[in-house]
Design a protein that fits this description.
Layout (H helix, E strand, L loop, with lengths): L3 H29 L5 H27 L5 H34 L8 H65 L4 H16 L3 H20 L5 E3 H19 L3 E6 L8 E3 L4 H10 L8 E10 L2 E8 L7 H5 L2 H14 L4 E7 L2 E9 L3 H7 L1
Parallel strand pairs: 2-4
Antiparallel strand pairs: 1-3, 4-5, 5-7, 6-7
Helix pairs in contact: 1-2, 2-3, 2-4, 3-4, 4-10, 5-6, 6-7
Length: 369
């Protein structure tokens, strides 16, 4: 549980604690200005040395009971302190008389009652010191456990965040590849019709533009952010294919200030909206339907409006419940939370879809880096 550095810290703490305790034994003599006797000096030094050594026993007890409850751990420390205090007090009683006879033969020996009181007093005092040492060991151990749990919690949080990011990335990839099959089916059907009617040049042009469009969209990283300029170019490629199908029935208008062309948006975000207008407005009328894509800035938000004048309000519920709208809503929620969203509404002249998301230009990221 404890590393080598922490063991050194514990050893240093033990030595300092018992050194202070030994110094306190000599304090009364120092205050009185009298030098302690040789026998007393050796006895106290032996007590300090024994205290340092037996503190290792207290630490071992603390280490062994680390998995127990707090009351059990404190009870074990109390019992170990009483035991170690008694052992040191008993040692002092054993060496006291031989040292007195050897170093201070003129001193009056203690009688049995005095020895008993002396032993009990030492036992209580030393038990308190061992108890203080054990409590410090427990505090260090608790601090160590808390730090380890904090590290484990941080690791678990990081792992959970990584898993969440991976899940979000997988979800975004799935949403990104959830292409509307109507587009591919209708385009191939138009190509087939052109071939049957011997409009080979038209069929060849549509196939070439379809290949270019699919090359761009399928090769794009589903998790990547693209410039609004690139997204508009993808729409141009898509609408060029649809233009071959609908010819004069499809009108297109793009409105985007130059300073917003470097804004970043999720890849393939707008194509489902344009596809919605083709399916529900252009394909259902014989007159010209104008489809407009407009980008503007509102405060710190990028607002993109896709609108058509197909007077397709009768298909409003179908548009709202379509795969494309739900797909975009989920992608924006996964990427931006409450800062991104999509609103749809039927208007008097047709249908309008509005997307808003945080405005971030590619130059802004370069400057931040």
């Amino acid at each position: 549980m404890f590393k080598t550095k922490e063991f050194r810290q514990i050893a240093l703490l033990t030595v300092v604690l018992w050194t202070v305790d030994v110094a306190l034994f000599f304090a009364p003599n120092a205050v009185a200005g009298a030098a302690p006797g040789a026998a007393s000096t050796i006895r106290i030094a032996l007590i300090g040395l024994a205290g340092i050594l037996l503190s290792g026993l207290v630490f071992t007890v603390v280490y062994r009971v680390s998995a127990l409850s707090s009351p059990a751990r404190y009870t074990a420390v109390i019992l170990a302190s009483i035991l170690c205090g008694g052992m040191v007090a008993g040692m002092d009683l054993i060496v006291q008389e031989p040292l007195r006879r050897l170093l201070s033969p003129a001193a009056t020996p203690l009688n049995e009652d005095q020895l008993t009181i002396h032993g009990l007093t030492n036992w209580i005092g030393l038990a308190w010191i061992f108890g203080l040492t054990g409590v410090l060991f427990l505090l260090l151990q608790s601090n160590r456990i808390v730090q380890q749990r904090d590290r484990d919690l941080a690791s678990a949080h990081a792992a959970a965040l990584q898993a969440q990011n991976a899940a979000t990335a997988a979800r975004l990839a799935a949403l990104r590849y959830q292409l509307n099959p109507h587009f591919l089916f209708n385009t191939l059907n138009a190509v087939s019709s052109a071939v049957v009617n011997q409009r080979n040049d038209e069929a060849e042009t549509m196939l070439s533009r379809l290949a270019d469009f699919l090359r761009v969209t399928l090769a794009a990283d589903p998790e990547a952010m693209v410039l609004l300029e690139e997204e508009l170019e993808t729409l141009h490629a898509y609408l060029a294919i649809e233009g071959e199908r609908f010819r004069e029935r499809l009108g297109v208008r793009f409105i985007c200030p130059p300073d917003l062309l470097r804004a970043e948006i999720p890849s393939f975000l707008l194509q489902p909206l344009v596809e919605n207008s083709i399916k529900h407005a252009v394909a259902r009328t014989i007159r010209t339907v104008t489809l407009s894509v407009e980008a503007r800035q509102e405060a710190e938000q990028l607002v993109i409006v896709v609108e058509d004048d197909g007077q397709a309000s009768v298909a409003a519920e179908a548009r709202r419940g379509g795969v494309g709208i739900a797909n975009i809503a989920q992608r924006l929620a996964a990427l931006y939370g409450a800062n991104g969203g999509i609103e749809t509404e039927a208007i008097s002249t047709g249908y309008r879809t509005t997307i808003h998301l945080p405005l971030q230009r590619r130059e802004d990221q370069a400057l931040a880096a």
